[in-house]
User: Fold this.
Amino acid sequence: MRFFPLLALLLPGLAWAAPITDAQRAEIDSRVARILASTGVPSVSIAVVTDGTLAYAQAYGDQRRDGSPPSVTRRYPIASISKQFTAAALLMLEADGKLSLDDPVAKFLPALTAADRITVRQLLAHTSGYRDYWPQDFDFALMAEPVTPMQILERWAKTPLDYEPGTQYQYSNTGYTAAGLIAEQAAKEPLFDYLQRRVFEPLRMDVLDTDQGLGPDDAVGTHRYALGPLRNTKPTAPGWLFAMGELAMTPTDLARWNVARLTRSLMPPGLWTAQETNAAPVDAPGPYGLGVRLDDVNGRPRVRHDGALAGFLSVNRVYPKDGAAITVLTSGGFSNAQEAIADAIEAIVFAAADETAQARALYDMLSAGRIDRSLFTKNGNDYFTEQALADYAASLAPLGPPVAVTLRGKKQLRGGLTVERFNFKFEDRTLLAVLRAEPGTGKVEQFTIYPSGE
Assistant:
């Protein structure tokens, strides 16, 4: 499935991530299966964009907790990833002349504390000073009962500020609740309806407002007490997620939005740039735009946000200079599986820049007792007999995934082969791997693993 094709000639200077290969898909599947098994998270659904198009979408595990086959068409709440949509709505309303992000909140919600000194932009950048009404990682008792957005503001945005507006960064769902009500005043229609008309329908996204409840075919959220059994999560009562976390969708729906960001379509390019411009003070934990976090990984700029909701954890990462994006939605409100899976996919997608990627992929194969023989020379294939593969699997699989993989020294050349050595570090030991390959074809002559003595 390919959509919103890129016009690379219109976007010069971008080095697009290459399309995903069958081997990369297999490696993603293997990594995901391991992470789900080690964390106990029941399901995950992913979408990967490379070369500006949807390259891979896959679902894993028991999404409904009924044994039905996993499907990428099942929706998951995306929680705070929703904030970038609220911010985008306000950016579009500004472009249409309906408001200014530098308007004081008092223009729309005059009864709130310091409303004449707080701007709409500060609400979106988490610099307003309004105290966050939901800092916990669980639903507190009040969230079992329905609420209106104004009732949230009455309780949390009419109290003294936590700090002077614009002087600090402090994540605030309260600020986004106010921003959503301002968007509705300016648009003269419900926020979800505005997004449906201006974003979801043009991008062909099948999005649900979680206040209406998830559908009978959507994912079921789960939680655990410590290391106890999985338990289904009771949905958050209507109203609490408004504007700050109310959307549910499939990973491919979110991929469509990510592609629009990459191609600077749907909205004028300047609005995307405005959303991705840091608006946080210099002493903030990190750059934050308008509904998106800004950072880089290995020098690669990244626009991202995570989402946490009772029973669900998610992460969405976009790499504007690489034409790539990674979406991971899980149905477990515990562990760090969503980040671990996103990290694994990130390493696979950008394997060319990862000096340990090939060694890790080969190790994963051997710990599972198999190899892709098309990757090896004749000598390499001759070495890996059925007995060798069985011994590798029997001795490596019990170790689980390595804690870290590092290159020892520099790549060398000997006998017409490149030579690299890697440390595979585990909790209680370190193994040494030796990789020899043909320089031209990249085919593997040797990949052997020994105790390192460290």
The first strand starts at residue 43 and ends at 50. The first helix runs from residue 22 to 39. Residues 355-451 form a domain with the Nuclear Transport Factor 2; Chain: A, fold (CATH 3.10.450). The CA atoms of residues 304 and 402 lie 26 Å apart.
